[in-house]
Design goal:
With 195 residues, the chain is α+β, with helices and mostly antiparallel strands. The chain contains 6 helices and 8 strands; from the N terminus they run ββαααβββαβαββα. The protein has a single domain, classed as Aminopeptidase, CATH 3.40.630.
């Protein structure tokens, strides 16, 4: 967490600042969510047009359970990526990634940057695996996760209903952190190099 705030460069050479969400950011976050297009809100799990939801979800900061990273341009929130995990129970070693990017900042690499940052944070925790649940229509989000090494675990047909009442396929993607560590160990320790 000490590495934030951090300035990153997008594909367009624009710079944005990444930092952790704080309680002081709740009103700007509400503004961000409420200014998303209806098309973008269609893919969200919750009604972000309701202020109460934002306060309920983000009003109690516990970075061990919810690690929300915001991207700012000129002091305005333009994206949020969050790593969620259960506090207790059989899925406490599974993290879930979610990312929302405003229309003006799509296709500029910001989603990939946020996913990478959240993945790097997950490496510093005791999580074994991270996953993302994405509607099949969200092609750019699926591509961003694939670039990070996520694999499709399942496609659940007509599993979710968007805000317009249309049933859609849900793609579940995951990355096994523990398996990745084993691969890295094999690569670095298990090989003999001849000079």
């Amino acid at each position: 967490m000490e590495k934030y705030p951090k300035e990153v460069k997008l594909k367009t050479e624009e710079k944005v600042v990444l930092r952790l969400l704080t309680l002081d950011d709740l009103e700007p976050l509400i503004y961000f969510f409420q200014n998303l297009s209806s098309k973008d809100r269609m893919f969200l799990r919750s009604d972000v047009m309701q202020k109460e939801y934002i306060y309920r979800r983000y009003g109690k900061m516990n970075y061990d359970v919810m690690f929300p990273l915001i991207a700012l341009s000129n002091g305005k929130i333009v994206a949020i990526g969050t790593l969620f995990r259960a506090e207790y129970g059989w899925m406490r070693h599974l993290g879930e990634l979610r990312c929302v990017v405003s229309e003006d900042y799509k296709r500029k690499g910001l989603c990939t940057i946020l996913i990478r940052e959240l993945f790097l944070h997950a490496l510093s925790t005791d999580l074994y695996k991270i996953q993302a649940e994405i509607m099949e229509d969200q092609v750019s989000a699926i591509s961003a996760f694939k670039r990070m090494g996520f694999k499709t675990e399942a496609i659940l047909n007509k599993h979710v209903t968007d805000i317009n009442g249309k049933r859609r396929n849900l793609v579940i993607m995951s990355l096994d952190i523990q398996e990745l560590w084993y691969l890295m160990e094999d690569f670095t320790i298990g090989k003999t190099y001849v000079v």
